[in-house]
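=== RUN LOG ===
request id: a7f3
mode: sequence -> structure
chains: 1
length: 246
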Amino acid sequence: MKMDVSTNLEAQKSKYPSINVEKPIPLQFDLGLLAGFDTNAMDEGSLRNNTDSYLKECTRDNTQLLINQIFQLPIDFSQNIGVLAELPEPTTVIPREKPVPKPKPLTRWEKFARSKGIKHRRKDKMIFDKASGEWVPRWGYKGANDDGANDWLIPVPNNADPFEDQFAKLREAKKERILKNEKRRRRNAEEAQAMLQPPTNNSDTRTARKLELQRQIATSKTATASYGRFDEPLEGEPKMKGVKGK
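=== RESULT ===
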């Protein structure tokens, strides 16, 4: 038994707007941004008499035109997501929300490397230890940079005190290196901060660092209840102006 369903299909289609939308001026599309630009003039009478209905109709038609353009793009299929459209590169230039970040000033090592032509080369995390015959981390726990502090046996140098604890000596030397590197890191950070905010009268780096340290000292004074009035002054510390207790 055959049944003609064309009448039912036509009745079903009549319930929804058509996907074919005609505009006097074709829309300009930037599919990379999923955007469409309508330059047609609005009907002032319809806009004034029935604003919401007119704006919804215009929005629906323009969205339909945008969807029609998306369906003309190359299509890909993913089992997890479904049908995907490959969007082209955007063509509309959008202004930045924030200004372009300023380039960071070079550290001392970066300046030295650039002057000597030294290029950065990425080092492997694992290296081969000839003594143990195994691959060990270059840094960190059980790394190759422990300088023998974790070894079970350390030879005593000929000119050293035979009763001196060589293990403690290595640990102290490592602590000193860590403190020295931390001091260098803080110095480089202070110099970089001073170069980003140079003083108005003198752009010398040392002067900028001195002013920055004085500003930090003044800020730390506000951490006490008396705003630093009863704190012992540091050697060479200038007298703070405008600091009053509450």
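=== NOTES ===
The longest helix spans residues 166-196.
The first strand starts at residue 28 and ends at 30.
=== END ===
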